[in-house]
């Protein structure tokens, strides 16, 4: 009974500090029996923080890191004064900060969203934001394994300031924390190990990241914020943080299961936009042998996903994006595709071609005269958020404008834990990849190519530069489209890494989408009633 009373009290305090928790209070109330421990002792809270960090395979967090006030060198502080102050800082606090930086330098997926604008322009709040900014800049300069997978986001509507509600979670644990630093209301942490509750907070975190009011911050952005904070130029800092937040390229698009209704939403009546990409190529030649009996009598891409054929999701995206000419490459039961397309009322011209090729690379080679200088290619059995094409085109154009040269390509990429058997890529630097394997897979490829956390898979969606394709390779056995890409330091392959997609390869994949959609509708309805 005492534990339940404690939980109720802390939940009330957490809710008082953070209105957004309202949508999760029901899940937390239901999860009472699953709450592992409540900590109200500072030393215990710090120990659980260290344990959490050391065991995590990824870390997502909301709010600033208050411990950095003790461990970072502050404005106008001499090196000697800093070292003297650091010498008396709690060893556990220093260990927690070090374990966090070590994790980031070792390539862990680390994401943090917070309000980078000091609260009420107070010196204490300026100091806290400054300490966080200096820490992350310092991490970028630390020796690392070649891949810093750090993603920081600014959102002015998340809570900020010392002692306010914040949370962090990993694959193993959720930690809810409120108080600290002499906060008089409460100083407590709640840990929850149950995967269902962690999942609910991941949805909330993803919704914050995907908000139009959220801005992704790169190293160069942190350096700008650092200068404004040092000068205490808060007006220009506010203008900078609020600028282009809606247009910021956010690599982490909302998770598929949480946004099925948005991902699977297309309206062919949307006004046609003007695109700099004249041609899109959709690959729809698969026989659907893994789909089982449901694909015996029709082309795989003609199978219905919710309320329309699979192929139409990407056709709608290409048409809505303002692409003039859509080429569908098909082979198996091509007449099904022709019959369906004949009834579409699109602004885009649609051409259906049976190239007779055995590989995707050879198919592209056979239509090379129809390709524009830059063109979009899309696998017909991959469903993506429509916004992704906008993001990719913008990144492609920004690289051209900044460097005066074309990137060889920009590819949508996904984690190497995906079940896709597409091209294997290697991260070379933030936002760039190289090709490791772009041929038909063998049974041993997962073990050979995907053991490194530095590996990614092509999603089968990208913008290619025709001038950087090596057509002499096109007839090689089993070659994928990515295998045609020639790249260099001057013409790199850019990438946008996402977690939001649906890969339709089996009947089970179709059923999963239907189940997720129904589940989402149920959750949305229940939250509306809170």
Describe the structure.
The protein has 17 helices and 21 strands. By secondary structure, it is α/β, with parallel strands linked by helices. It folds into two domains: 180 residues, Endonuclease, Chain A; 244 residues, Spore Coat Polysaccharide Biosynthesis Protein SpsA, Chain A, CATH 3.90.550.10. A hairpin with a 4-residue loop joins strand 5 and strand 6. The radius of gyration is 25 Å and the shape is elongated. It starts with a helix and ends with a helix. 39% of the residues are buried.
- Low-confidence runs: 1-7, 13-25, 30-35, 180-186, 245-272, 526-530
Could you tell me the number of beta strands? 21
Largest sheet: 8 strands, mixed
C-alpha-based Rg, rounded: 25 Å
Distance linking N and C termini = 26 Å
Secondary structure category: alpha/beta
CATH-defined fold name of the largest domain: Spore Coat Polysaccharide Biosynthesis Protein SpsA, Chain A
Gist of the model:
The chain has 530 residues and is of the alpha/beta class.
Write the layout of secondary structure elements.
Blueprint: H1 2-17, H2 22-30, E1 35-39, H3 42-55, E2 58-62, H4 68-71, H5 79-87, H6 91-105, E3 109-114, H7 123-141, E4 150-155, E5 166-169, E6 174-178, E7 188-192, H8 195-209, E8 214-217, H9 219-231, H10 234-242, H11 260-263, E9 279-284, E10 304-305, E11 308-309, H12 310-320, E12 325-330, H13 334-341, E13 349-353, H14 360-366, E14 374-379, E15 382-383, H15 387-403, E16 409-415, E17 424-429, E18 432-437, H16 445-449, E19 455-465, E20 493-497, E21 502-503, H17 507-528
Parallel strand pairs: 2-3, 3-4, 9-12, 9-14, 12-13, 16-20
Antiparallel strand pairs: 1-7, 2-5, 4-8, 5-6, 6-7, 10-11, 14-19, 15-21, 16-19, 17-18, 17-19, 18-20
Helix pairs in contact: 3-6, 7-9, 9-10
